[in-house]
């Protein structure tokens, strides 16, 4: 349910209503908007407490939230959420650009990549230290050594670090080094991991599972929000279809659809979404045209010799050209990039 407070409701009224909601065995999420404060009362609300809550001090009305995802829904919060993590701003008219290699391979590699993407206008550095690989024989990442190299690259460039956490037991370790925790496509429905990242103060980039519906993506985000972390970015990274000319099929209608359902910002990953370097620049520009709040792009100083995903990585020069192309679209849409 949504408890909508009157515009002149006091802080004490809001506090009182939070206590009432909690006494009903529900969780309260307070959302302070520019015009009104609303409180989401979520949990097992088979019993409706509408009448009893409506009589509370400062309450204007109590409404059901129809969507299965509650805190993520536009019904609860109409103003788009902007997520900020150091140099990275995603949403509210600013397009965040997260760029870097698929995996951290060495200090030299990540520093070269970081400097190159920064020079071309990226606002955050990506790079996996813990890699979820399809084969157990593929490169699994440098783990904590890789995290340290990412931190060195942040110190050298000022770029916020976005990196993946693959298991709940690694969340504390990764959060010590990362500015944004990435939950990978394969882990979108790892609910213990979602709760663990939801209990940190680090923004989360949640990637869509290749076989997940958008509703499942939003319900996965709901786990993070419900654990108390409001800074969630949703990422469309392509889904599995019968089509085989691309690694995945990249549905850009997702961006528009999500903007009609949720206040959370939407990031697109055209690198994994296509799986081919030559498709990335135009699909990045198309993502911006569709209204994406951010892009995540794989960029490698030497794609041919990359330890993972080289075939979909841009060279620094290709990345700089992609930025120029995307900026033209962003400017046409009155967005900052
Ligand atoms: C990645 O970003 O390198 C990655 C593994 O992505 P995904 O989880 O979308 O496959
Ligand atoms: Mn990759």
Which structural traits does this protein have?
18% strand; single chain; elongated; 14 strands; 337 residues; 4-stranded antiparallel β-sheet; 8-stranded parallel beta barrel; alpha/beta; binds phosphoenolpyruvate; binds manganese (II) ion
What does the model show?
- The chain is an alpha/beta fold.
- It is 34% helix and 18% strand.
- The chain has eleven helices and 14 strands.
- Helix 3 (107-119) runs parallel beside helix 4.
- It is elongated and about 65 Å long.
- The chain starts with a strand and ends in a 5-residue tail after the last helix.
Helix content range = 25-40%
Order of helices and strands: EHEEHEEEEHEHEHEHEHEHEHHEH
SS content category: alpha/beta
Percent strand equals: 15-25%
**Strands, total number:** 14
Figure out the total of helices: 11
**Shape field:** elongated
Biggest β-sheet description: 8 strands, parallel, barrel
Outline the low-pLDDT stretches.
none
Compute the separation of the termini in Å. Answer: 37 Å
Provide mean pLDDT, rounded.
96
* Arrangement of strands in the largest sheet: 7-8-9-10-11-12-13-14
* Hetero groups: phosphoenolpyruvate, manganese (II) ion
Q: Radius of gyration, rounded?
A: 21 Å
Give me a quick take on this structure:
The chain is 34% helix and 18% strand.
């Amino acid at each position: 349910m949504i408890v909508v407070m009157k515009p002149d409701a006091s802080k004490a009224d809001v506090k009182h209503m939070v206590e009432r909601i909690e006494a009903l065995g529900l969780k309260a999420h307070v959302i302070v908007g520019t015009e009104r404060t609303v409180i989401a009362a979520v949990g097992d609300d088979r019993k409706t407490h509408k009448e009893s809550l409506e009589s509370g001090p400062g309450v204007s009305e109590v409404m059901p939230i129809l969507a299965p995802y509650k805190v993520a829904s536009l019904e609860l919060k109409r103003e788009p959420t902007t997520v900020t993590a150091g140099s990275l701003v995603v949403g509210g008219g600013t397009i965040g650009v997260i760029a870097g290699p698929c995996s951290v391979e060495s200090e030299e590699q990540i520093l070269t990549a970081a400097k190159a993407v920064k020079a071309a206008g990226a606002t955050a550095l990506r790079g996996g230290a813990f890699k979820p690989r399809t084969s157990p024989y593929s490169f699994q990442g440098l783990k904590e050594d890789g995290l340290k190299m990412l931190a060195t690259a942040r110190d050298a460039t000022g770029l916020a670090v976005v990196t993946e956490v693959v298991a709940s037991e690694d969340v504390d370790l990764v959060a010590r080094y990362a500015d944004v925790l990435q939950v990978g496509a394969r882990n979108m429905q790892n609910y213990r991991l979602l709760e663990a990242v939801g209990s940190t103060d680090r923004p989360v980039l949640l990637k869509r599972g290749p076989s997940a519906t958008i509703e499942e993506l939003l319900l996965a985000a709901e786990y993070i929000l419900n654990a108390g972390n409001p800074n969630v970015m949703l990422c469309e990274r392509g889904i599995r279809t019968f089509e085989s000319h691309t690694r995945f099929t990249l549905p850009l209608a997702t961006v528009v659809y999500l903007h009609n359902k949720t206040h959370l910002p939407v990031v697109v990953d055209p690198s994994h979404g296509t799986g081919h370097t030559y498709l990335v620049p135009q699909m990045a520009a198309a993502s911006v045209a569709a209204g994406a709040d951010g892009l995540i792009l794989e960029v490698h100083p030497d794609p041919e010799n990359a330890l993972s995903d080289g075939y979909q990585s841009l060279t620094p020069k290709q990345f700089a050209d992609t930025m120029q192309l995307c900026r033209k679209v962003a400017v046409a849409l009155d967005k900052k990039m």
